[in-house]
Design a protein that fits this description.
Radius of gyration: 18 Å
Oligomer: single chain
Strand content: 15-25%
Distance between the termini: 38 Å
Strand order of the largest sheet: 1-2-3-4-5
Largest sheet: 5 strands, mixed
Number of strands: 5
Order of helices and strands: HHEEHEEEH
Number of helices: 4
C-alpha cells in the first residue's frame, strides 16, 4: 500500500485505475476483499438480547472490518444499545445510544454476557 501511495505522489494523475502497476493492483484487490467482508458482516450479523437489555453479537470475520461496520449499525440500530465483538481480534465496538467506544473486555466479561 505504501508503494501505491508513493507512486500516486510521483504522478500528476489519478493512478488508482492503473492496474498495470502491481502495487496499485494489490491495493485494489485488497479494497475489493475488504468491501466484500464488510458487506458480509452487515448482512449476517445477528444480535441477541442480553439480560441487561444490551443487544450483542460475536463475530469472527476473516479480516479486521469492525471499524468499517460502525456507521451502518449506528444508523440502523440508533435506538438500541449494542455491542459487536470480534472474537479473533479480541476487541469490540459498543454503542450506548450516544457514542461509539472501542472496548477490550476480559474473557470473564465476555463470557458473562
Amino acid at each position: 500500500m505504501l508503494k501505491a501511495l508513493q507512486y500516486s505522489f510521483t504522478e500528476n494523475k489519478n493512478v488508482l485505475n492503473d492496474y498495470g502497476d502491481p502495487d496499485v493492483l494489490v491495493l485494489k484487490q485488497t479494497e475489493k476483499i475488504m468491501r466484500r467482508e464488510r458487506h458480509r458482516m452487515t448482512a449476517f450479523v445477528r444480535f441477541q438480547l442480553g439480560t441487561d437489555q444490551l443487544y450483542y453479537s460475536f463475530i469472527e470475520p476473516d479480516f479486521d472490518v469492525l471499524p468499517l461496520l460502525i456507521e451502518h449499525f449506528r444508523g440502523r440500530y440508533a435506538d438500541q444499545r449494542w455491542l459487536i465483538y470480534d472474537r479473533k481480534r479480541h476487541y469490540g465496538i459498543y454503542y450506548d445510544l450516544q457514542s461509539i467506544a472501542y472496548i477490550r473486555p476480559s474473557e470473564d466479561e465476555i463470557s458473562g454476557i
